[in-house]
Design a protein that fits this description.
Elements (H helix, E strand, L loop, with lengths): L1 H9 L8 E4 L7 H17 L5 E5 L14 H13 L9 E7 L2 E8 L1
C-alpha cells in the first residue's frame, strides 16, 4: 500500500504546494524541517487537503537516492516539531518504505 502511494507521489510532474522532495540521505536540518512542516501544513489547510507530503530520499529533480534516517532521528524530529509549534503539532504519519532497494520516508502533515 505504501509502495503504491510512493509511486503515485513520484509520478507527480513536479513538486507542489503540498508535495516536497528532499534528498536527506542521512539526516535533515531540524530548522529546515520546521519551515517545510509549517509551509506544507498551511498549504494543505488552505487548499482543503487532508494532508501534505514530504518525501525524504528523493532529490528535487525526482532522482531517487534513498535515505537511511534512523528511527531515533525520526523521534527527535517529531519531538522538535511538537516542542516548537503552538498548538503542539507533529507529523500525522511517518512511513518507512523500501522501494527499488532503497529506503524512503514519507511524512504527512496537517
Amino acid at each position: 500500500m505504501m509502495e503504491a502511494l510512493l509511486r503515485k507521489l513520484l509520478a507527480s510532474k513536479t513538486e507542489t504546494e503540498v508535495l516536497e522532495f528532499k534528498e536527506a540521505k542521512n539526516s535533515y536540518s531540524k530548522d529546515k524541517l520546521g519551515k517545510y512542516f509549517s509551509a506544507l501544513s498551511n498549504e494543505a489547510n488552505l487548499k482543503g487537503k487532508p494532508c501534505a507530503w514530504l518525501l525524504f530520499g528523493v532529490k528535487n529533480d525526482k532522482t531517487v537516492v534513498g535515505t537511511s534516517i534512523s528511527d531515533k532521528q525520526l523521534n527527535e524530529y517529531k519531538v522538535e516539531m511538537a516542542q516548537h509549534t503552538s498548538p503542539k503539532l507533529s507529523f500525522i504519519n511517518i512511513h518507512q518504505v523500501n522501494y527499488e532497494g532503497k529506503g524512503f520516508l514519507i511524512k504527512s502533515s496537517r
